[in-house]
């Protein structure tokens, strides 16, 4: 298998598709890779009760924050990739620009696939508009209709539908069967393995305490793993204004 840098891939797509289509296709694909790899991490970390229990055992608050932030980031990502091609004077990076850039023989197929991707991202767009990008007052006050129902499999489908838009273009211009690999799985699994090793060490420490073997507990952590500063100082504006701007 040939491994290309992002710049090499961009040049290849431009050569095969022309500058405008090649650039738009490449940038959409790169954005989709980033969104899908983030979703891969989310799914690997939270795919079953065992991984959830492991992460919660480290810190439930951090676990909840990771799950929420990753989920909401991906909702934003699939919305951006299916937003209108232009809004006022702005030009957006979106698969909705592709039907007007491909050859005539592909327009109908790509337009249909774009429509299917829009349908698959309807719930994400509702979440984006009323909860993530903006905080709808009536929703917060329970005075509006609930957000459209979504799920992990619905999010996975939204990503797959966006990928499906790109596949016929890659096949026609590059004779490439474009796949979407699980790019984030290995990173997430490495994180889980370190958490598991830490959990085992925590259990060993508890056993050491029970047996009063305190020597094994000495100097366990470096100074940089200790909390620095007192509670309530991070958001002290007077302190912040004294910190050099490069920090």
Automatic annotation (TrEMBL):
InterPro entries reported in the protein's UniProt record: HEPN_AbiU2
Domain (HEPN AbiU2-like) ranges: 20-185
Organism annotation: Hoeflea algicola
Protein name, entry field: HEPN AbiU2-like domain-containing protein
Domain of life: Bacteria
């Amino acid at each position: 298998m040939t491994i290309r840098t992002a710049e090499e891939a961009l040049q290849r797509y431009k050569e095969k598709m022309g500058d405008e289509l090649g650039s738009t296709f490449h940038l959409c694909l790169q954005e989709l890779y980033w969104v899908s790899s983030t979703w891969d991490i989310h799914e690997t970390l939270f795919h079953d009760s065992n991984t959830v229990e492991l992460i919660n055992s480290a810190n439930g608050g951090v676990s909840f924050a990771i799950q929420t932030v990753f989920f909401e980031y991906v909702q934003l990502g699939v919305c951006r990739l299916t937003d209108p091609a232009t809004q006022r004077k702005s030009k957006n990076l979106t698969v909705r620009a592709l039907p007007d850039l491909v050859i005539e023989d592909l327009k109908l197929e790509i337009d249909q696939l774009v429509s299917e991707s829009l349908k698959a991202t309807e719930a994400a767009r509702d979440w984006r508009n009323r909860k993530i990008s903006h905080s709808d007052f009536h929703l917060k006050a329970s005075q509006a209709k609930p957000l459209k129902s979504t799920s992990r499999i619905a999010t996975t489908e939204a990503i797959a539908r966006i990928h499906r838009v790109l596949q016929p273009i890659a096949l026609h211009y590059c004779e490439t069967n474009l796949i979407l690999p699980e790019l984030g799985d290995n990173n997430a699994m490495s994180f889980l393995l370190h958490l598991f090793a830490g959990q085992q060490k925590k259990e060993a420490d508890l056993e050491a305490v029970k047996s009063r073997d305190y020597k094994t507990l000495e100097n366990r952590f470096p100074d940089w793993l200790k909390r620095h500063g007192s509670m309530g100082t991070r958001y002290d504006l007077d302190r912040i204004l004294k910190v050099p701007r490069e920090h």
